[in-house]
Amino acid sequence: MDACWQGSLFADPxxxxxxxxxxxxxxxxxxELAGGAWVDVVPGWVADPDGLFDLLLARVPFRGHxxxxxxxxxxxxxxxxxxxxxxxxxxGRLTGMAVELGAHYDVAFSQVGVNLYRDGADGVAWxxxxxxxxxxxxVVALVALGATRPLRLRPTGGGSSVSFPLASxxxxxxxxxxxxxxxxxxxxxxxxxxxxxxIQFRHLYPGSPGxxxxxxxxPGGRPGARASPDGSPPPG
Length: 236
Known about the structure:
By secondary structure, the chain is of the alpha+beta class. It has three helices and 13 strands. The chain has helices spanning about 50-60, 90-105, 180, and strands at about 30, 35-40, 65-70, 70-75, 80-85, 110-115, 125, 140-145, 150-155, 160-165, 170-175, 180-185, 195-200. β3 and β4 form a beta hairpin. The radius of gyration is 17 Å and the shape is globular.
């Protein structure tokens, strides 16, 4: 992996919870958006974010993907990887985060995705999660590691956007109708920018595409919760 990240000189490693979190989820600041959507933000939620960044950069088998855009096939401007919970390959700190977040938001997170934005030329266009936007409500949690990049949201179909600059270790949770009534993006930038890793936690719904009969219970999840990847572009 050729991405190079200079971590904070003032990091304070203190993994005192399953997810290695410092500020509690109860300290989240909620931003109410139009149409029943909301966003929670917890700055500095992850303890030792530099150590977690280095761990994921070294161990995750990131790979690129190609997709059709109009009349040609192009490389996606980011590298990605996904796990289903409770796969044993999921790093323990990410499993702990999924349990902690799921207990707080009363959902059983069944999928963990990671995106690597190597520099400012990587990003993700406006979108809502493909499966979640078909549901009245959904919860998608994002953890930022590495370089600060903004996550932007705008009403589906266009309109004024709001921007959340996420620093290393910050948590952002999108809930309510957000995936259905709003879109989000990580815009590219020409400014000098180091690498960034985004961790995404998603939950599946009965009847979703790929939802296996009988379901799986993620660690700490509610009985009967079901797990399967969706086909959406990775957010955050």
